[in-house]
Structures are given as C-alpha cells and as structure tokens.
Amino acid sequence: MVSAFIPVEFYNYRPADIRLKNMTTNTANILDLPFKGNSVESLSCMHVVEHIGLGRYGDPMDPEGDIEAIKELKRVVMSILSSSSPTILSLQPRKPQCACAQRSS
After folding, report:
1. Does residue 105 lie within any of the structural domains?
2. Domain count within the chain
3. Which end of the chain is more exposed for a tag (fewer CB within 10 A), N or C?
4. What is the tens place of the pLDDT at every residue in 29-39?
5. What is the DSSP string of 6-55?
6. pTM for the full predicted model
7. Residue 40's closest CA among 88, 86, 92, 76?
8. In 25-43, which positions are buried (b, 16+ CB within 10 angstroms) versus exposed (e)?
C-alpha cells in the first residue's frame, strides 16, 4: 500500500471503513469531485469509470456517465504540461457489442 510511504487521501462513493497509517478516507461523487480545477497532483482511478451511469450504486442511469466521469477527472487533475505527476486510469475491457434487429416482413 502506497500509504506506507506517503500520505494518501482515499475517496469512495460509499463510506469506507479503512484505517491505515498515513491514509484518510472520505466520500465523494466522481461526477462532482470536491477539488478545484487543475489541483490534483496524482490520481488513481481503478475500475470505477465503467460503472458510472449504470444505476447500480445509487447513481442515476446515464448512458454518458462514463464520459462525464472522465471529464470530471480531467477537470481536477493538473495538466501534464505543468506537472510530471502520474494519473492512473484503469478500465475493464469489453468485447465490442452490436445490437441488431430484424424487420418482420
């Protein structure tokens, strides 16, 4: 765990009962993060974005939820041009899907 080496702030949609040295936990909505624009030096978002907008975690159904989440992450993370700090975004790969319907004659 990285908090063994540096202070970490952990945010989750639901309260997380985690207690580790150098780690604070808070709640946040990925669509409305509690940070000023261009203020986050380093960010890890692991397997979250693909769940946004599905309505499974108390969030509203929104087919563009994943795109809106990425926009919000982009808003708060410092520009790559002004910082060398990393941003890690991990998504679940999916097979391409096609919904096709046949017309009845």
Report:
1. no
2. 1
3. C
4. 999 999 999 99
5. S-EEEEESS-----BTTEEEEE-BTTB-SS-TT-BS-EEEES-GGGTTSS
6. 0.74
7. 76
8. eeeeebbebeeeeeebeeb
